[in-house]
Amino acid sequence: MTRLTQAQTFAAGKLASDPTHGEGVLYPPEQAPYYLATGDEEQIFEQCHLRNLPVMLKGPTGCGKPRFVEYMAWKLGRPLVTVACHDDLTATDLLGRYLIRGNETVWQDGPLTRAVRLGALCYLDEVMEARQDTVVVIHPLTDHRRILPIDKTGEIIEAAPGFQLVISFNPGYQHAFKDLKPSTRQRFVALDFDFPGADREADIIMHEGGVDRGTAHDLVGLATRMRELHDQGLAEVPSTRVLVATARLIAGGIPPRQACQVGLIAPLTDDPALRDAMGDLVAALLVD
Ligand code: ADP
User: Fold this and answer.
1) What three-state secondary structure class fits 23?
2) Distance in Å, CA 267 to ligand 1 centroid
3) Under CATH, domain 6-192 is a member of which superfamily?
4) Where are the domains positioned within the chain?
5) Ligand 1 geometric centre to CA of 239 (Å)
6) Which 3 state secondary structure label does DSSP give 160?
């Protein structure tokens, strides 16, 4: 109970000022993050939350994974602590460290510890980027024990009610030397994410990009053709995110073809042949 009260001390939408704490956000009831469901991910996530099951979100970059977690945090009324994983991230960064303050040595919680105490959703984005010896610190939180041992302080923290671990990764980036251990993977319920169907993606682009339905559909049509170029060597296909960015440029008055050049084509590839192929698609499918 005390811990839940502590959770309420998160000011609405306020980001923690200390970066080692990660971002802690409590979405006010009247400020729902915009998220358009593409299947039954909401219901499954809710069940996982009720039953203390950690969740992994798998899918390409830019298809809405963090947005989904923000939306679920809002829906469940829990604070959200997000950690962007990278290969220099250490267990200490997640758990916390002693800091010297004046003449004193004080313990400062890392983002994982903070989320465990608060009963927050803790979202480890692109978890595959982190080293395996970092990732193993989450193991005792992912089974019935729901504890976080902190060797440096000798504390064993029981996760407060509402705490839930969520991780995400892009299976397209998987390398033989960079995968989650099977012993880690099997601790999670897995939700597959992909780009939404054409009508839903157009709705998202209209909402997020501020363009009319016709323009949103044109952009989705273009993306559908460009995604086929994956087989011809385009490593990163256009995501919903780049379509939203391009739509925003168009909504701001940049001519559509130019917006596609700078918002859609140039960010994706430097290969001249692929850029030409994408430029041809833009010329064929969009009128300026
Ligand atoms: P990812 O981690 O998959 O890169 P993001 O949540 O950052 O995903 O998605 C990128 C952007 O795409 C979001 O900021 C949002 O504008 C848009 N988006 C993608 N999918 C959805 C969705 N289902 N509902 C609402 N917005 C979405």
Assistant:
1) strand
2) 17
3) P-loop containing nucleotide triphosphate hydrolases (3.40.50.300)
4) 6-192, 198-285
5) 9
6) coil
